[in-house]
Amino acid sequence: MIHDKGTEHVIPGDPLRSVLIPINREGWPFILLFAVISLGLGLIAAPLGWLGAILTLWCVYFFRDPERVTPIRDGLIISPADGVVQLIDVATPPPELEVGDSPRPRVCIFMNVFNVHVNRAPAGGVITKIAYRPGKFLNASFDKASVDNERQSLAMRTDDGADIIFVQIAGLVARRIVCQVEEGQSIKAGQRFGLIRFGSRVDVYLPEGTSPMVCPGQIAVAGETIIADLTTSEAPREGDVR
């Protein structure tokens, strides 16, 4: 937590918080399963047990759920996912949301199996509609994954009256989308709203005319990276690998 004292920001020092990262509750059944299998493998052969132990540690790592410091200001749209900004384009929102077929600016963030997979609300507001659509499990880095893959789409009316959409998309090895909010629910920017197990992608559809403030290839941090500012008319940003 950041305490504001005038212009001074104080971050309390707690060394344990930087080491003992919380685990999302969705992960405990999997961690237990991995641990039991590892124990069984160890009884068969020690090398198999060590391999199982490594996979169990990876499972713990996958379901980590660190705290984030979310920028708070009207008009800011924050990244809902950790990962690489895979694509920035203009696309039609998922038809199941019934929000019209006008193309909107879209930012696509791809999560690999080593990213934090807890998803966070890109803005504060009210969830106006949620729509689930079954589908395929193509590699989430492919553009057609947004059309063909299983997905959970959410429409939001932000606190300052803008309409945005964010979509959880299953990936090649992702087989379970978890959405923990309901229609009509108010949520805050950066608040956890779900996760996708084992590799996936999240797309954000911005209001027409909005210029994203990130570039393809950039690393986004859920709950922290600003991907758009609805209060500015700034031109689209360009990036350079350095």
Helicity level: 10-25%
Which residues sit in consecutive blocks of at least 5 with pLDDT less than 50? 3-12
Order of helices and strands: EEHHEEEEEHEEEEEEEE
The overall pLDDT, averaged over residues, is 86
Q: Describe the strand arrangement of the main beta sheet, using strand numbers.
A: 11-7-8-9-13-5-4-14
**Rg (C-alpha, Å):** 19 Å
Distance between the termini: 32 Å
Question: Helix count, per DSSP?
Answer: 3
This entry's quaternary arrangement is single chain
Shape: elongated
What class would the helix/strand composition place it in?
A: alpha+beta
User: Beta fraction of the residues?
Assistant: 25-35%
Number of strands: 15
Biggest beta-sheet profile: 8 strands, antiparallel
Your description of this structure?
This protein is α+β, with helices and mostly antiparallel strands and 242 residues long. 16% of the residues lie in helices and 31% in strands. It has helices spanning 28-44, 46-62, 145-148; strands spanning 3-5, 8-10, 76-78, 83-91, 104-111, 118-120, 125-133, 151-158, 163-170, 177-179, 186-187, 192-196, 200-205, 219-220, 226-229. A hairpin with a 4-residue loop joins β8 and β9 (163-170). The longest helix is centred in the first third of the chain and has 17 residues, at 28-44. The radius of gyration is 19 Å and the shape is elongated. The protein starts with a strand and ends in a 13-residue tail after the last strand.
